[in-house]
Write a structure and sequence with these properties.
The protein has helices at about 1-10, 25-40, 55-60, 85-105, 110-120, 125-140, 155-190, 200-220, and strands at about 15-20, 45-50, 70-75, 75-80, 145-150. With about 220 residues, it is an alpha/beta fold. The protein has a single domain (about 1-85, about 115-220), classed as Rossmann fold.
Length: about 220
């Protein structure tokens, strides 16, 4: 670890390390070794995050991390292996519950529920679910160092590219929602009433904030 130790001594403000490339290069081994070193030798509160469905970090640390959330291995070292399928299912349930809460419904219309369920088979859903988990953890700002063990090259590239794709998508939707709110405010004024709080807009702004925090971290704030 002398080489990396020297690197981090010179780049003390480094917050994220990404190990990427084709399969078999030792990405997971390097991720685990660096995470252990930084946590135990450098005193950095470290999160080692695997996006690889092979769950190799579980093999290295001889612990079952897959789909179980963030787990502390030793002081300062936390590990998480994302179960993307479980993440998608949880997200679908969250969306359903938010719709019920926002519109005061007892149950979802059948066509809406079927549409939400069908999204699990959408292209890039795995990358979207994993990216969402990564962004959420980074936005919480609970760690000094984030080490990402990326899946084989193709998936890894798509996942990093997801930052720009999702950012533009959320920006467009947020812009449209904000414009709609302006019209609602005008209508409320004309009626002599007060416009209700927009829960959808609040959710969009929260999502945009998380995406920005993660995007800034992986790009160094350079867009």
């Amino acid at each position: 670890m002398n080489g990396l130790s020297e690197f981090f001594a010179q780049k003390g403000d480094t917050e994220i390390v990404i190990f990427a490339g084709k399969g078999g290069l030792g990405k997971t081994t390097c991720s685990a070794a660096l995470a252990y070193h930084m946590a135990t030798k450098e005193g950095k509160r470290t999160l080692c995050f695997s996006t690889d469905p092979q769950a190799s970090l579980s093999d290295i640390f001889e612990r079952d991390f897959f789909g179980k959330g963030v787990i502390e291995v030793v002081p300062n070292l936390h590990v998480i292996e994302i179960d993307a399928d479980k993440r998608v299912a949880e997200y679908q349930q969250e969306v359903k519950q938010r719709i019920l809460d926002m519109y005061g419904l007892d149950e979802l219309p059948e066509e809406i529920e079927e549409y939400i369920d069908a999204t699990a088979s959408e292209p890039a859903m795995y990358e979207s679910a994993t990216y969402d988990a990564m962004a959420e953890l980074v936005a919480a700002k609970e760690y000094d160092l984030y080490i990402f063990d990326m899946p084989p090259f193709g998936h890894g590239v798509r996942m990093v590219a997801m930052a720009e794709i999702l950012s533009k998508w959320v920006d467009k939707i947020t812009e449209a929602r904000e414009k709609a709110r302006e019209y609602e405010a005008v209508a409320a004024t004309l009626k002599g009433t007060k416009a209700s709080e927009d829960e959808v807009l609040k959710e969009l702004l929260d999502i945009r904030s998380k995406i920005k925090a993660f995007t800034d971290l992986i790009t160094g704030g350079k867009q």
